[in-house]
Every structure is written in C-alpha cells, then in structure tokens.
Fold:
Amino acid sequence: MATHECDICIIGGGISAALLAQKLAELRPGVSIIVVEAGARLFDFENRTARRQRMLEYGENAWPGDAIADQSADGIISRTMAVGGSAMHWGGVTNRFSAEDLRLKSQYGVAVDWPLEWDDLEAHYCEAERRIGVGGDPSPLPADRMSQPYPMPPMPLSWNLLQLKAWAERSGIPFWGTPQAKNTIPYDGRAVCQRCNTCEICPTGARYSPDFTFKQLLAAKKIALHDNVLVRRLIPSDTGGRSPRIVAAQAVHRERPEQAVEYRARTFVLASGYAWSPHLLLLSSSARFPNGLANQSGLVGRYMTGHSFISAQIELDAEIYPGMNEQHSLISRQFFRCPTDQPYVRHDFRIWESAAGRQPRLRTDEGKLLMGDALLADWRTRTRRGAARVRMYSDVHPDESSMLTLSPAQKNRFGDPLPKITHVLDAATRARAAATETHIRALFARLAQHSNGRVMSVTKGEYLDHPAGGCRMGTDPATSVCDSFGRTHDHANLFVVGSPTLPTGGCTNGTLTFAALTLRSAPAIARA
Structure:
C-alpha cells in the first residue's frame, strides 16, 4: 500500500478545492496540502481552440475525458469528474444570494435560517469575486449594496441586450447585466474575453476555471495534486468514542487498481460537491458507525436542495441579430425580496437574446428546398421580429426526505454502491407551487404587453438546478451535519465545504455562494 502523509488532505478537485487550497497556502505558509481527485487533470489549455473548433464543426464533446464511465449517479445533472470539476466548463455567471436567504424562517416563517450573518458572508463574496475575477454592474437596488466594488468593469451589453433591456424596462422592472467571471480587462495573467460565444470551452482563458489556480499552486510547490485517485472510505480513530478523529482516507488509483493508496492527515476536507461528499460519508459505514460517518443526526444525504425554474420564449418587435455573445444576459433582482404580508414567492429574473426559429434553414415548413436568394429572403422574413428567452429560478425548499442514498442496484467497478438522488420539496413549497407559477406567468405576460410581444411558449424545468445540500450546516448537532464553517459535529478534524453545506438553494446561480462559504471556512480549517 502506498501511504501519503500531509497536514491537510482535500478530497475533491473542483472550484471549492482550488480556492480553499490557495487560501490555506496563504494562511499557513509551508503547510503540506494534498488534493485528491478521482478524475484526470485536463491541463491542456493549448488544445482548447482546436477542440472548440471541432465542437462547432462536428458537434464533438469539447471536454473528452472529463467523466468516469463507472462513476455516475441517478438524479445528478452533471457527470463531470476531473481536476477543476464542472467549473471547467461553467457559464461563469456569478450572482450572489441575498440576505433573505439566510433568514427565511425568522423573516417569512418558511424553511430554516442559516447559522451566519449576511455581513460575514458578504465579505467573503467580495473575496471570491476578487480571487475568481468578476466583472459586473452594481445592482441599483439599495438592498443589494456591496461593501466592495467588483474587481473588473462589467461585460458590455451587446446591441441585442440593449434592445431587450429597453423593452423589458418598459414593464417598470429594472434590469442590468449579469455579473460574470470573464475578464473585461487583463486579470490574473489571463486574457480579455473576446465574446466568442462558446463559454463552455473558453479558448482564451478569459473565463475563470480552477485549472488556472491549480497550475499556479503547483508551479509554486504549494500543493501536491493526486489525480485519478478515487477515495473510497474514511477511517476513524479507534479511540474517541462516538466522536473520533479521522485518521486516514483509503483510496485506489484508477489506472493502477491493484495499488491501494492511503492518506494520513491532521485534517481532512471533503470538497467533492453535493453528490460525492455525502456519498463518501455514507460509504464509510462500519459496524461501529452503521449509518456512515458524521451522521449521528441521521441527516447526511438529506435535505438535498436546489431551485426550480420556468422559462418562456417571447417574440417582440425588435431588431435582434442572433449570435452576438448570446450567453450574456440581463438580470433583475427585484423579486429576491418578498413582502412579508403577501404570499411567499422569491425568484430571479433573467433575459437572453433568442435564436429560436430564427436560424437560416434549407427547407420551409412545407419541405420546399431553399437556396441562394430564396434562403436569404426566408431568413430575413423570419428575423423581422426578435425573440427573448426569459427564465426565472424560484426559491423552493427541500423536505427531509429529499435524499441521497446508496443505490442497491448500481455499483462502480470496485463494488462501491453509487449515489441515488431523489429530490422532494417540502409541504409548504408544494402548497404554493401553483401560485408561484401563476405569478411567474403573469410576469411573462407583463413583458409581452410591450413592443407587440407574444409569449410563444412556457416550459417548466424537470429538475432542480444548481443542486446543493446533503451535509447541511447548523448550530444544533441534532438537526445538522456541520457548523457554519463546515466542521462536522461528530469529527473535530473533518470538514465539508461548498455546496453540500447549504440548508436551502436560493433563487439564483449558486457557484459564487459555494465559493464564498468555502473561503469563509479556510481560517477554521487552517487552525484545526
């Protein structure tokens, strides 16, 4: 067996792991850190322009090798397992939650309050924005006040978004550009965004991805990175009663499966995301801990959360030219706050340009072949009016039975049961679902009242986006898995960071919140 020793062992190699390792190296110079990731390191920036081109020309996967064939789960929305995680090909949207997310119970009588104060989290939002590199317009709403400005200017609005902004604001709702982790000036050694419209594989490095942080840390010899190593079990000390320290992580090298690997550390950190962090705790069951580790509350893998969404396509009289940085969008945070004397509904409000029904085509609806001038005439006819894609993430809350469990039917090649995730909303969320949908549809209609608008279609999401939970934080060990810094209640040297710790999923993109919470945990981990 190969044995590796270090001060801090971080299990998982995504954005939370990258930012945590970076900050720990600053807080404790000389500390030994090993990051262990089941997937491969895709440090091939020089190949991304070519892979982008093949994606555009042939529809090929732009990220070959970023998943593990036998390491999947029922109920997940991304199979990415690689150094950098899903943030290797995220859209770069960096919305913040709002103060209301932290006091849902005390302010609205729903769900639970988070065990931290907004000013504390807001300071770490600023830190995350600085480390990642975020540009954006400050919100015009006083409740969204930032203690520090964004480190970069906002991404310029395209012609299309300027037309859509003017149209949407005729409804009386303010809109502005969505904050983005894409360079609008040279930043952290990375280039300026060229708005080439393929954010899922950025060929210039302008959109932040964790591989840049990992490469900096490796070049400075601040960390060791062990990729292609799957951690299968955590081992508690024989002493310590019901709350022992964790003494080892047992793993296997995926390319050398006959070779067992063991990590011994003073502190262990799970940074494996909402699925694989609680999964590892449940896998680490034994006769002494039959329900897994950190699970005296019985809540590991419970309260799996995220947010629902409803989308619409709205046609309008507007001069729109599809394809102009169409991944950028408008946002309004006006509905992040809900009057306490009205029915509870909270959501974001996003608008993109849409090319729906407006791309060039070779045949008419009747099947007639289009060539030359006929093709151009048909295309011009169908683009005389513009279209907007409008979407709202709504705040929904998990039931305790919203669970990640170990599948009795699916196992990886090493015989480990894989996760199975089943989302269940709590009774209060289900009771207000119809009223929430009516409210959102009314806002679609409100937009369509202007510029001869017409709601062409409305689609309800069939999953929860930006999933989180499974190791919810709290002050009471009976009702939570870890404290607000991610330290598990049952094991003093075991932490969980990022998305699994969220009690609720908010009503906007979660990545910046996952990062901010992770950075907030770093000093506690450094002291452990």
